[in-house]
């Protein structure tokens, strides 16, 4: 039986203008879900490993979409806790020529920032784990 790699952290909603526009110029934003640990879990799953992502997400369509995206990549999302009011968001302006990329974070009071250890069934989460990834 293949052992599981457990990743714990925040998954965020990234909003970015298309075509290297600045935020002030954009009328449409690209939506991407990601974060350090979520990206590791997704990459491991795509490489054929058994990967589990653990976090806390709001019980709303944004939380549902983040979970759906992870599942589509083969990540085990069974232990994602639901609660809180919001998902962390960041806005990314891609650099162009000599203009550097710029990131604006809006993650105060995100669901994971208000999580407590009791929100998670740690015994079950680690029942088949051989590695724990956290940053």
From TrEMBL:
<dbReference type="GO" id="GO:0016301">
    <property type="term" value="F:kinase activity"/>
</dbReference>
<dbReference type="InterPro" id="IPR029056">
    <property type="entry name" value="Ribokinase-like"/>
</dbReference>
<keyword id="KW-0418">Kinase</keyword>
<dbReference type="InterPro" id="IPR052700">
    <property type="entry name" value="Carb_kinase_PfkB-like"/>
</dbReference>
<protein>
    <submittedName>
        <fullName>Sugar kinase</fullName>
    </submittedName>
</protein>
<feature type="domain" description="Carbohydrate kinase PfkB">
    <location>
        <begin position="3"/>
        <end position="125"/>
    </location>
</feature>
<keyword id="KW-0808">Transferase</keyword>
<comment type="similarity">
    <text>Belongs to the carbohydrate kinase PfkB family.</text>
</comment>
<dbReference type="Pfam" id="PF00294">
    <property type="entry name" value="PfkB"/>
</dbReference>
<dbReference type="InterPro" id="IPR011611">
    <property type="entry name" value="PfkB_dom"/>
</dbReference>
């Amino acid at each position: 039986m293949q052992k599981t790699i457990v990743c714990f952290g925040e998954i965020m909603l990234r909003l970015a203008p298309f075509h290297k526009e600045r935020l002030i110029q954009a009328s449409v934003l690209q939506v991407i879900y990601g974060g350090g640990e979520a990206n590791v879990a997704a990459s491991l799953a795509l490489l054929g490993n058994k990967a589990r992502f653990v976090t806390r997400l709001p019980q709303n369509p944004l939380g549902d979409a983040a979970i759906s995206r992870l599942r589509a990549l083969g990540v085990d999302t069974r232990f994602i806790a639901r609660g809180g009011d919001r998902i962390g968001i960041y806005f990314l302006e891609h650099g162009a020529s000599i203009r550097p990329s710029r990131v604006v974070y809006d993650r105060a009071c995100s669901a994971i920032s208000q999580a407590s250890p009791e929100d998670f069934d740690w015994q079950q989460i680690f029942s088949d784990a051989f590695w724990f990834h956290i940053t």
